[in-house]
Amino acid sequence: MGLERKACKTAAQLLLAASLMVTGCASEENRSAGNSAESGNQSVKAAYEVTMVYPASVEPKDLLAVQDEINKITKEKINTTVKLIPVGWGAWPQQTTLMLSGNEKVDLIVSGLNTYSQQVSKGQLLELDGYLAEQGQGIRGALDSLDPDFLNAARIGGKIYGIPSIRDLAADYGITMRKDLIDKYKIDTTAIHSLDDLDAVFQMVLENEPDIVPTVKYGNSIIDTYLNSYFDNLGDGFGVLPGYDNGLKVVNMYEAPEYAKLLNTVRRWYQAGYVAKDAATSTETQYNLVKAGKAFSFISHMKPGIENQESKLTGTAMVSIHLRPAASMTYNITSIMWSIARNSKNPEQAMMLLNLMYTDKDLINLFDHGIEGKHYAKLSDNIIDFPEGVDASNSGYNQQMGWMFGNQFLSHIWNGDDPELWDELAAFNKNALKSKGLGFTFNADAVKTEIAAVTNVSNQYKIALETGTVDPAKQLPEFNKALKAAGIDKIIAEKQKQLDAWASAGKQ
Predict the structure, then answer these.
(1) pLDDT value at residue 508
(2) Beta bridge partners of 319
(3) How many C-alpha atoms does 85 have within 13 Å on its Cβ side?
(4) How far is CA 444 from CA 119, 228, 490, 496, in A?
């Protein structure tokens, strides 16, 4: 989620390239874009430490060394130092709720992650329009060069409270499978056009590799992300837009024929033995299962370069088959954003740091890859690999989370990925189908009681249904009956009311 060059481009060249890449070039102009906000540095009277809070699987052992290198850049440019606070994914909801609810010093925090509208409604995030205008012009240039709709998608009540990271801002959908087994059994991947074409593939794996599960969960479900190839989930899935349009008429996804058909497919797979019997209760990730030689495939959302990404994460060569077209909805954009917390003591300098994260190539590569020579080595101007003696297992900084830290299009590209990956991803974002609901964010305050009740019902039924563990012919009607009793129709009505008002107001 632009091209990186040593030589600077002229303004005319940047405009010409705007549809394909993020504003930015190498050392000087790349940074001068960010330094358009550095005029604010004149008003900075004292050094300030920006506290950055973000989710991570583990805390890298070389985190402080990387932080020191980051601070050399930020101290020089904006008289600011940075304190990095990674929080485990499992602890993230509770810990960040406590951080934002109390008086703990938090300047920049990753927002989105299904909590954006709630954080805004609680007044925990600052409105950013003014800060963007004064200290964040580089951010606006980077995002607007992709598509102004992407930044506008973060608006709630016409105001921006979060800045989307520049990454895959759309998704297509399909299945990723182990390449060694595809080659071993001469599986014709060109014949796979839909989920129904997978039965024969799964049967071949089951018959010949009885210790390998043909397909496993991605997250909590076999098909959860795949559902987004049929519906704009409008944030929470409790009221969706079929086909990303439907005349802006919100419906209950769990009553839709597409949902029932997918459940029947997964149930068929479960009964045939293509899905593990403990799929509903297993907490092991798809990556670990493939890495351990226990799984063949998983269904997920996708993007350009997905094969290499999943190969790195599983430690196994993988092949990805794209089955559903790319689309962009609000969730794709607002799922990972950066916000300035209400608790910030200096939001101006927090925004100046954020601006550098979208415009400064040296800074973003420290966040993404660590220290050159220690955590990565350049093979060419823009292609990197691990240094000699270092690999994913022993690197002191191997987060593989470039999609989180600002502008990924300024990041070096790993050896094995397409050298033109960022161009491809920019085109992918630009050409994806845009949902008619793109930019709409649901405010659940009026139905928060119903949301809680419906969520409880969903937790009771959804995983079992979407892993094929139970018979949808019996359980889906019960699920919908329980959803209605919990108040899903009231949620849908409120969502429809807000969507209508949003559309009438010019989608602001």
Answers:
(1) 55
(2) 177
(3) 18
(4) 11, 20, 11, 12
Provide the 10 A C-beta neighbour count for residue 380. 10
Q: Decide the pairing of beta strands 413-414 and 383-385.
A: parallel
Look at residue 8 in the predicted model and tell me its pLDDT.
34
**Strand bridging mode 336-340 / 163-164:** antiparallel
Nearest to 268 by CA among 199, 217, 204: 199
Please report, for residues 127, 299, 351, 450, 494, the alpha-carbon distance to residue 325 in angstroms, rounded to integers and kept in the order given. 34, 14, 36, 33, 30
How far CA 238 is from CA of 228, 493, 504, in Å, comes to 13, 11, 22
Helix (H) and strand (E) counts in the chain: 20, 16
Return the pLDDT at 9.
35
Question: Cβ neighbours of residue 143 under 8 Å, at least 6 residues apart?
Answer: 22, 150, 151, 163, 164, 166, 358
Taking the C-alpha atoms of residue 21 and residue 145, their distance in angstroms, rounded to an integer, is: 7
Q: What residues of the chain score a pLDDT lower than 50?
A: 1-42
All residues at 6 or more sequence positions from 440 whose CB lies less than 8 Å from its CB, including other chains = 234, 330, 498, 499, 502, 507
The two three-digit tokens of residue 150, written as one number: 């992407």
| Residue 382 per-residue DSSP state | S
| Cα atoms in the Cβ-side hemisphere of radius 13 Å centred on 10 | 3
The amino acid sitting at 220 is N
Place of tokens 């990924």: 408
pLDDT number for residue 254: 97
pLDDT score for 58: 86
User: Which single residue is written with the structure tokens 């927002």?
Assistant: 111
pTM for the model stands at 0.83
